[in-house]
Amino acid sequence: MSALIIVGGVHGVGKTTLLSTIVAECRTSTAFFDPGPLFEEHLWRKKDKTPEEVEDMAVSELVRRCRESRVVLSSWHWGVWTPYGYAPQISPERWRLLLAEAKPDRLYLVTVTASPERILERRIRDYAKHPRKRSLEAIKEELVQSDEYYRAFLRIGHEYADSGTAILVPAKVDNTGLDAAVYRLKTLYTQAHETARTPE
């Protein structure tokens, strides 16, 4: 079965740049999935689906890719701000369902970090394209919330690993410097690819 690598962090931490570098060098047996565009299209542009329906779409897509690919890389937000407060990108129930149906042999939960000051710099630079909160206090709050939701995903990951033969690999990537962060994530990807099996 496949290895599933979830790479998560707050907006502006540098996931897109980091992952694009890795994806450009991925082997053909690797699939990449970012659920963000699904949420943007159906919740904000078309407004034709509920958050729960979009979560179901994201889960179905990840399950399909895990069944077809040796390694699946996915960009993620552990916690996201909504008008009703912070929430996980998908509910704990759907996260459990995803793992139960995808059945990855290797589960990598990678949280990407950077200093609030560095995140603020990136948000100011990218504001025209991605309007995000631009205050250190707001960013610090997001980092705290993201870390809490990461630990919640991690607990469910431990439950999944403890219930069978899967291996859980929690990891942290400090994206203060891109070269070091790319090297760290590339090492995790290589490890996942070498130890996973291509689905039959």
3D architecture notes:
With 200 residues, this protein is α/β, with parallel strands linked by helices. The chain has a single domain (3-195), classed as P-loop containing nucleotide triphosphate hydrolases (Rossmann fold), CATH 3.40.50.300. 52% of the residues lie in helices and 20% in strands. It has 7 helices and 7 strands, in the order E-H-E-H-H-E-E-E-H-E-H-H-E-H. Strands 2-3-1-6-7 form a 5-stranded parallel beta sheet, with helices on both faces. Strand 4 and strand 5 form a beta hairpin.
CATH architecture: 3-Layer(aba) Sandwich
**Major sheet description:** 5 strands, parallel
CATH topology: Rossmann fold
Structural class: alpha/beta
What top-tier CATH class fits best?
Alpha Beta
- What string gives the helices and strands in order? EHEHHEEEHEHHEH
User: What is the straight-line distance between the termini?
Assistant: 8 Å
DSSP, total strands: 7
